[in-house]
Amino acid sequence: MNRETFLSQLKEALADMPEAERKDVLDYFEELILDKAADMGVPEESVIAELGSVQDVASAVRASAGSAGTAPESPPEPLDDGEMGDLVFTGDAAQVRSLVMRVSNSRVNVHAGKDDQVVIHYTQTRQNRYTVSVENGELVFEQIKPAGLLAWGIGVFLEPARPIEVFLPKEFAGKANLVTSNAKMRWEDVSAWGSLMIKSSNGAVDIERAQAKELTATTSNGRITTEQVGAQGAITLSTSNGKVEATKVRAAAVSLRTSNGSVHVQDVKADDITLRTSNGGIDGVIAGSAQEYTVTSGTSNGKNNLRGHAHTGPKRLSAHTSNASIRLEFAQDAPE
Amino acid sequence: MDAQLKRGVIEACVLKLLTKGDGYGYLLAREAAQVIPVSESTLYPVLKRLETAGQVDSYRQEHGGRLRKYYRITPKGVEAIGAFLKEWEEISRVYEFVREGQP
Lengths: 336, 103
Hints:
The structure holds two protein chains of two kinds. By secondary structure, chain A is mainly β. Chain A has three domains: 3-64, no CATH class; 82-187, no CATH class; 195-336, no CATH class. Chain A has four helices and 24 strands. In chain A, a hairpin with a 2-residue loop joins β5 and β6. In chain A, α1 (3-13) packs antiparallel against α2 (19-40), α1 (3-13) crosses α4 (54-61) and α2 packs across α3. The radius of gyration of chain A is 30 Å and the shape is elongated. Chain B has one domain: Winged helix-like DNA-binding domain superfamily/Winged helix DNA-binding domain (Arc Repressor Mutant, subunit A), CATH 1.10.10. Chain B is an alpha+beta fold. Chain B has four helices and three strands. In chain B, α1 crosses α4. The longest helix of chain B is centred in the C-terminal third of the chain and has 25 residues, at 75-99. A three-stranded antiparallel beta sheet of chain B has the order 1-3-2. The chains are: A mainly beta, B alpha+beta. Chains A and B meet through α2 and α4 of A and α1, α2, α3, β3 and α4 of B.
């Protein structure tokens, strides 16, 4: 497009603008085209091509429309960073073999939804923006990292990220890897065929009524609670400064670790059980009988009711703490 | 970037460029783009706002057989740079507070 055509089309696109202001705009772009073409040593046409469409130029220019002679408070420039507000992503569950979420400062809650859909409800704001993609069976929901200091409006301090609600089929035929920070995470009523990894920090993790090939949940400064949870392989729960609880848990191996918090088991069944903490008690009930287990245990500055355990069964139970007591019973041997 | 925030930052960049000498549209667009991503089209409303706010004024001067528009910073514009820097000092204090101890 040559300069005359561009300017006349721009003039048309700005037909509703006051004459004086429109002339300013046209002068600005005419000069710009001439100066840039001279400076870069390129034809005017290529300068015009780089400007983009006439409509784009017109809408960029309109950001200042109506400002002549009025207060400098003009309408904000159009946002180019996507839709804002409460948004819903809906995907075909058959296309998703892996769910990956990487967000920060947002609670993430996973629930059972429709059998054939993966649905994510989230709230997009200027400070908290996300991308969703599905490629090769992997659904990636990711928070867009702001680019450095300038990207953080002052509003970020007033505007915590809203919870993200994820709805998966009750039987989710894939694996999941969910990461947030500084927020709670909750997973309920969904069984994953693949492995399930949940990671947060400074927030609790709750998992209820779920199955997975393997389950790993990690946080810090928060509790981890699991109830009616099973895995073919290992269940590994690890936190710090919070308690870890496992109720009605079944797996090949169960490992519960924390520090400065207690470890509580209720009806936990596994061939290999590891319970570790410090400055917190270990208590509860293990499924089965004492004869089934070979036990290693120890505490400092506390009582340990497993101290006299002499059986050498095929299963392994390891319980260690410090500055607190160990009190573990076996369901079949428990007093009536 | 937050549009409101970006607007303020671009305005400050343009004002700063003008403290080094009067400039015309293309020159300012080229130089500002070295500091912050800003298109030539976006620069127009920025210059317009600065002019309306009295932080820059303009005059025309002959160049290569045509009259080119030059922008010039006003005392109000110089004040605006000071206000911008002061505001960002506050923000960077908050930034340091938030950043501390973050991985």
